[in-house]
């Protein structure tokens, strides 16, 4: 089945003039691409069908759906808890529903949605969609502005609001924190992708490209000689800064990785990996200031809490401290399963607190991440 690929609007006010194309960036292990159909905070799933594959007439776009025109709440026939934003400030009206953080999405010729603040309340609005509307991705009388998420101002998305709407400062609290830490970053002009097999949408909150060094640590793809910017969420960039506090006392200066963003589901499931949200990195090895490397596939010692070699002990200790210091929410080691035999998978899955390292596994919520390993050549 072919799925329509929604090319979401660029954050036009935040374009990175020198940004490399996505194809030039390392991606996480595994394959696929994927927009999750996000659940509503208040009403559960929206009864979603197949992703839209055709063209839409003008009167079909967002008809009866969030962001579409309305004369009354009854016009919003596809909305679970419908309301109609009206008055001179909302030309032609705009269907919406209350939200506390997330909003539902719907298949067909409909925009992906976003929970933003409207007059002090959380309201679902349509994200900018150049495929659906052309131009800046909004219906006539509306313009694309970067808005913070309601109750989560560190996350922002390009959203359709009435023309003349005063856009807030696009610098999120997370990005301000990066600046305070001296981390070099730039906006990532991410266009939402869909996984080919599931049709799920790989949405990314606060996407950025972050450059090395991060807290004294350089990040480079395992088979490259130089570092390149990482395509990640802003929050993952902050986590990498925390990782530097774990690595520097051990004289580690480089992290060798096998990818961050990759739009794909967890193997054998209909659920997206954290890689699909730019919220994970796979660590293949480490290098210290003497040039000594520590390669997971070669040096990790399985099924023991007392590694015998210095390389095995360092890798084990790093995994333990990443967990103890809450650097990441999920940490999967080579002991977790065969698919992770050559890397640490670490991510920021919301609500997770899990380390999979063999004889003892501590968790409050299983990450559900699969093994997606690659087989790099021997170092």
Word description of this protein:
By secondary structure, the protein is of the alpha+beta class. The chain has a domain of 188 residues: Muramoyl-pentapeptide Carboxypeptidase, domain 2 (2-Layer Sandwich), CATH 3.30.1380. Strands 11, 13, 14, 15, 16, 17, 18 and 19 form an 8-stranded mixed sheet that branches. Strands 7-10-12 form a 3-stranded antiparallel sheet. A hairpin with a 4-residue loop joins β18 and β19. α2 runs parallel beside α3. It is elongated. The N terminus and C terminus are likely disordered.
Task: Provide the fold topology.
Blueprint: E1 83-85, E2 94-96, E3 113-118, E4 121-126, H1 130-133, E5 142-149, E6 152-162, H2 173-181, E7 185-187, E8 193-194, E9 201-202, E10 207-210, E11 218-221, E12 230-233, H3 234-247, E13 252-257, E14 280-288, E15 293-295, H4 296-299, H5 310-324, E16 330-332, E17 344-347, E18 354-356, E19 361-363
Parallel strand pairs: 11-13, 16-18
Antiparallel strand pairs: 1-2, 3-4, 5-6, 7-10, 8-9, 10-12, 13-14, 14-15, 14-17, 16-17, 18-19
Helix pairs in contact: 2-3
Which fold name fills CATH's third level, the topology of the domain at 176-363?
Answer: Muramoyl-pentapeptide Carboxypeptidase, domain 2
How much helicity do the residues have? 10-25%
Please report the distance between the alpha carbons of the first and last residues: 40 Å
Question: Secondary-structure element sequence?
Answer: EEEEHEEHEEEEEEHEEEHHEEEE
